[in-house]
Design goal:
The complex is a heterodimer of chains A (615) and B (332). Chain A is an alpha/beta fold and 615 residues long. Helices cover 37% and strands 20% of the residues of chain A. Chain A is built from 20 helices and 23 strands. In chain A, the strands form five sheets. Chain A has a seven-stranded mixed sheet, with helices on both faces. Chain B is of the alpha/beta class and 332 residues long. Chain B has a domain at 9-216 and 297-301: 3-Layer(aba) Sandwich (Rossmann fold). Chain B is globular, with a radius of gyration of 22 Å. Classes of the chains: A alpha/beta (615), B alpha/beta (332).
Chain lengths: 615, 332
């Protein structure tokens, strides 16, 4: 029996296993190889907040989903058509998300009575009819891996740890991917432990050959590469990494040295880790004793003439609040990155949510406005980080850049920018004592930045209100009004330097979908599907959230309905409604720690449009 | 300007009106700092004063140097950022017992353990002054204050022990009414290469008047205090007739001739800790001066050394290298 080569333009695979099964690594390798094949892709890792929840339990299931395609895509896929389930818990918690008729590869080596019990199952879902309607491939991957590695010197425990590469090999065959990129990666990764490189390579090849020889699957799939991809260099990038690179680049484009003061917090920690590798880029990183010290060192560094930055997640942002107010009143540049996670409090630390928007905009004592922006995708995080550095230094203000768990750990191909062509925004420090005053402003209302060590410019700044001209402490009532107005006008003035959002779709129509942050992908994909169905829908993504760009009202008035899908209870909609009361902003909200699916949004948009037609 | 002229103490005064209460111990501290900076020939454009919140924290406004009056408890963290960002800046931290040991206690111990080259002056008046008289982490147990009308039940910190426990490389104590002593201590702190923690006992005339009078008033001072001077015997008394002798873990009062020699540079923090224990014993004099002064690498030195080492090994990084990694590919 020969297996048929089936062309598919769009595939979503989900790897699911125990936290210790190496599913994130398997997924990442599949992703790297798929990117090199030339597919567009998007990924979504989903893992428990415990590093090792009890083995085999539902709580310990770690998932990595990849969506790859022969055309441009915006999301990690709605319903997978392939599920790799390394144990019963992985199977039972994931199979319901599959498309009908999907392939399930189950590792029967981990389906003993004991395994079923750990997954709280009374009967075996592989045999009790649970999976009717799916194409289930049952293989004892544990045993196959042991067999394949019989000739190695590794102990059984180490041998079994290679089962994820055996599985990866099977998936490479099924989707016609080359195994060479992973073999090369293994040689680099385990350069100092060649026995591990060898064992994993053997497992990978064995899985690939086994799938081919035994024709485990009914067919083999081919997902052609994307045609007409713009020329240039590409690489896969995860959101946190792109952000770290963007922050380093932003500081250099400002002509400054970067200083990151931070504290480990999921899911932002990677940024600190990446930047701590950048020593030869003159990046200083300080892992401080707490979140407050993280932001305070960054403020001190900015005062001293570096570009201060701090990275955190929602709970950390709450702790930094008072210090950010200090950066507002002292008018020092500061970039604050909030990689949002589900809350409140500790909430769901490894799950996605975008509910820190109002905290970012208003979460400080008194009138403390600052610019807020958000990134849409892993690659977009680079541009947004540079943009945050530009605004912070050009306007002498703290800036909050919102990312989230989904962007942070998701990956996509990134068309690498030509570094020499990126626009520079060099900072000009004040050096002339003639007529110097610490609160003297330029035409953008930014005060001058005079760094300590500059002769003749000794001055004091601080958290007490300052005289608008001399910068001395002032308790004058009128002066306070002037300063509050000035700080607000300065932040509002940022709107003069940002573009009106581009529209994906016609300039007018039945429905405008306004998205921000990581809801970009699902919103855009849903709208494009509606457009293909002939619906007059348009998608608009908002990178800048405070101040809003100019020209929004002119866009809004050309649509019959405006809807704002958000992974919160309606925060952007709330602000838009207050700024633009002449329009009505409908909400669509979800807070389940999971991203929107394009089909879910499309279904909702269809529902509300149908209601409109009926009434 | 032609030749650089050595500045005088008054050159370090800003044009701002000083607004501490008349008789406040802060006045003597600021003038000592101004004198020390002048004596050491410091350039005011190269000095940064960082403070938190509290009466003492207004200090930077009154100094004609670079200054940052920040938020409650965070001076050490902000100063760490300043110093690491630009190690050439001489950076001082001005804080109090509430600011530096209560709300800012965490940053205090961590800046000491990291040995950031900061000159930290802790103004200790055993009370919250700016909020008008509540007990602080150094207020003695039993003291009646506005928030402890029946006596404070909180056990206080000994600031010196906290600093020693945090691994401070320089620990000293002085008194607001002894400007000469204070200048000597501040000078030693300024010249120390590393974090220098100086506790200043300072009277609050309004909310805690006389809190240190048992050790500050001239008539009792000689018998109730002992000056620790490196390489000198630990002697005290109006005629310098008494001395302290250390034997094992015990300190006893002996005739001056039998007094032990004080050495703050020993590797172990043990002797300094032992001296700080005298605070608990009302029959013993309280030690002033430099408790500990040992050398250790500074945080900012280590940070920048590491940057130099990695840069020497890998070359100056170009942004392009950060982005165009080995796993990138070209679409033609």
């Amino acid at each position: 029996m020969s297996s048929e080569l089936i062309r598919q333009d769009d595939v979503t695979i989900r790897f699911a296993g125990d936290s210790g099964d190496g599913m994130q690594l398997t997924g990442t390798q599949f992703t790297e190889t798929t990117a090199k094949v030339g597919n567009d892709l998007a990924t979504f890792p989903d893992y428990p907040s415990e590093i090792r929840a009890p083995v085999g339990t539902r709580a310990g299931v770690s998932v990595y989903q990849i969506h790859f395609s022969s055309r441009d895509i915006y999301t990690p896929g709605d319903a997978p058509s392939v599920l790799v389930a390394m144990n019963p818990a992985a199977l039972i918690t994931n199979y319901k998300d599959l498309q009908p008729g999907s392939i399930i590869l189950a590792n029967t080596g981990a389906f003993t009575e004991k395994d079923l019990k750990k997954a709280e199952l009374d009967s075996n879902p592989l045999t009790d009819g649970t999976l009717s309607g799916f194409r289930v491939i049952q293989e004892d991957i544990n045993a196959r891996t042991v067999q394949a590695l019989a000739e190695t010197s590794l102990g059984k425990k180490d041998v079994l740890r290679c089962k994820n590469f055996y599985t990866l090999g099977m998936m490479y065959w099924l989707f016609s991917r080359p195994i060479e990129p992973t073999l090369e990666w293994l040689n680099v990764k385990f350069a100092k432990k060649p026995e591990l490189a060898d064992a994993n390579a053997r497992a990978l090849k064995a899985g690939y050959n086994y799938a081919e020889l035994l024709r485990l699957f009914q067919g083999r799939y081919e997902v052609p590469k994307v045609e007409n991809v713009p020329k240039g260099f590409y690489r896969n990038v995860m959101g946190n990494e792109a952000l770290a690179i963007g922050l380093a680049a932003g500081a250099q484009l400002a002509g400054l040295k970067a200083f990151l003061g931070s504290y480990p917090i999921t899911p932002a920690t990677d940024i600190l880790q990446y930047m701590s590798l950048m020593k030869n880029y003159d990046v200083v990183t300080c892992q401080m004793e707490d979140e407050i010290a993280g932001v305070c060192t960054a403020i001190g560094a900015s005062f001293a003439g570096r570009l201060g930055m701090t990275t955190t997640s929602g709970p950390g942002l709450a702790l930094k609040t008072e210090a950010i107010g200090l950066a507002v009143i002292t008018e020092l540049p500061l970039v604050i990155v909030d990689v949002q996670r589900a809350g409140p409090s500790t909430g769901l630390p490894t799950k996605v949510e975008q509910a820190d928007l109002l905290q970012s905009m208003f979460g400080r004592n008194s009138e403390a406005p600052l610019p807020v922006l958000s990134c849409a995708t892993p690659a977009d995080a680079f541009e947004c980080a540079v943009e945050a550095c530009r605004i912070a230094t050009q306007y002498m203000t703290p800036v909050i850049l919102l990312s989230d768990n989904y962007i942070a750990n998701g990956a996509e191909p990134w068309k690498l920018p030509d570094m020499d062509k990126l626009e520079k925004f060099p900072v000009k420090f004040v050096t002339d004592p003639e007529g110097f005053s610490p609160y003297k402003r330029d035409d953008k209302l930014a005060r001058g930045w005079a760094k300590p060590g500059t002769p003749g410019l000794a001055h004091r700044i601080g958290g007490l209100e300052k005289d608008s001209l001399t910068g001395n402490v002032s308790h004058d009532p009128d002066n306070h009004q002037v300063m509050v107005d000035l700080r607000l006008a300065k932040v509002n003035g940022v709107a003069d330097s940002i573009p009106t959002p581009e529209l994906n779709g016609a300039e007018s129509g039945e429905l405008l979908v306004v998205a921000w942050g990581s809801t970009y992908g699902a919103s855009r994909a849903a709208v494009e599907r509606l457009q293909r169905d002939g619906v007059a829908a348009t998608h608009m993504h908002m990178r800048h959230l405070r101040p809003f760009p100019h020209g929004l009202a002119d866009i809004f008035r050309k649509f019959k309905r405006i809807i704002v899908p958000e992974l919160n209870m309606g925060q952007l909609a709330f602000v838009l409604q207050s700024e633009y009361p002449e329009f009505r902003f409908e909400k669509y909200n979800k807070v389940k720690g999971k991203p929107f699916q394009a089909r879910e949004l499309k279904a909702h948009f269809e529902k509300i449009l149908d209601l409109e037609v009926k009434s | 300007m032609s030749d650089v002229q050595q500045l005088k103490a008054k050159d370090f005064k800003s044009n701002q009106e000083v607004r501490w209460c008349p008789g406040c111990g802060d006045y003597s501290i600021i003038s000592s700092v101004q004198s020390v900076l002048a004596e050491l020939g410091r350039d005011k454009d190269n000095v940064v004063m960082v403070s938190g919140i509290g009466c003492s924290s207004r200090f930077p406004y009154y100094m004609d140097t670079y200054g940052f009056h920040s938020i409650h408890g965070r001076a050490n963290a902000i100063a760490t950022g300043v110093k690491v960002a630009n190690p050439d800046l001489e950076t001082w931290v001005i804080t109090g017992d509430g600011d530096g040991l209560s709300i800012g206690g965490n940053h205090m111990i961590h800046s000491l353990r990291r040995n950031v080259n900061l000159k930290i002056i802790l103004f200790n008046n055993e009370i919250y002054g700016l909020t008008k008289g509540q007990y602080s982490p150094t207020t003695p147990q039993g003291q009646k204050t506005k928030t402890s009308p029946f006596g404070s039940v909180d056990a206080p910190f000994n600031p010196l022990q906290l600093a020693l426990g945090a691994g401070a490389t320089f620990v000293a104590r002085t008194l607001d009414v002894r400007p000469k002593h204070m200048k000597a201590v501040l000078k030693a702190a300024a010249e120390h290469k590393g974090a220098a923690f100086v506790e200043v006992w300072q009277n609050c005339v309004i909310f805690n008047d006389g809190c240190f009078k048992e050790w500050s008033e001239k008539k009792v001072r000689d018998d109730q205090t002992v000056d620790l001077v490196a390489g000198q015997p630990m002697i005290f008394g109006s005629e310098k007739e008494k001395g302290l002798k250390a034997e094992g873990c015990h300190i006893q009062v002996v005739p001056a001739a039998e007094a032990s020699i004080w050495d703050p540079t020993v590797d172990s923090a043990g002797p300094a800790f032992l001296m700080s224990q005298l605070d608990k014993d009302p029959s013993m004099p309280k030690p002033f001066g430099v408790y500990r002064a040992v050398e250790a690498p500074t945080l900012e030195g280590l940070v920048h050394d590491q940057i130099s080492e990695v840069t020497a090994k890998r070359g100056v990084g170009k942004l392009k290298d950060l982005i165009y990694t080995s796993d990138s590919w070209e679409v033609e």
